[in-house]
Write a structure and sequence with these properties.
Number of helices: 7
Oligomer: single chain
Number of strands: 3
Distance between the termini: 20 Å
Structural class: alpha+beta
């Protein structure tokens, strides 16, 4: 069995509680702004228009890093193993990293015959890049400068 949980790290104690509460409130207000017509109009005026985005200089200073935690499922009485991994890129996540991931997926499917053969044996009609290309994608992205590493077991 597999389960998924996503979290955002905040401070401890009251500062963490306050930060989590504010984040929840802001996300809720933003959601309302996208639905209520007058607020949606104001939001559109404040946000970048389609085709606008960060400058090349700002993109050059962008980066991303995620920590992943996985826990094994064991028999009753056996302590689970917790694994920590880190993934990231030293470039802008919204433009450079996303386009590079798409490029590497396309190249893997177009040029790497073994990947295509493995994909054709998978059940299902529409596959995510991770399902379709598997660990071969990690190899390609590492070669492109991305970081994927298990740091704790």
């Amino acid at each position: 069995m597999c389960s998924y949980l996503e979290m955002t790290k905040t401070s401890k104690g009251m500062a963490g509680w306050f930060g989590a509460t504010m984040m929840t409130a802001i996300m809720g207000l933003l959601g309302i702004c996208f639905v209520v017509p007058p607020l949606k109009y104001l939001l559109k005026k404040m946000l970048p228009a389609p085709g606008q985005g960060p400058s090349l200089q700002m993109q050059g200073t962008g980066f991303w890093s995620f920590e992943y935690y996985a826990e094994t499922e064991e028999e009753a009485g056996v302590a689970p193993t917790v694994v920590k991994a880190i993934a990231g890129d030293r470039r802008d996540p919204g433009y450079w990293s996303t386009s590079r991931m798409l490029l590497e997926t396309g190249l893997a499917l177009a040029l790497d015959d073994t990947v295509v053969e493995q994909t054709q044996s998978l059940p299902g009609g529409v596959l995510t890049p991770a399902t379709a290309v598997g660990m071969h994608m990690v190899t390609r992205l590492r070669a492109a400068g991305f970081t994927f590493e298990v740091v704790d077991k």
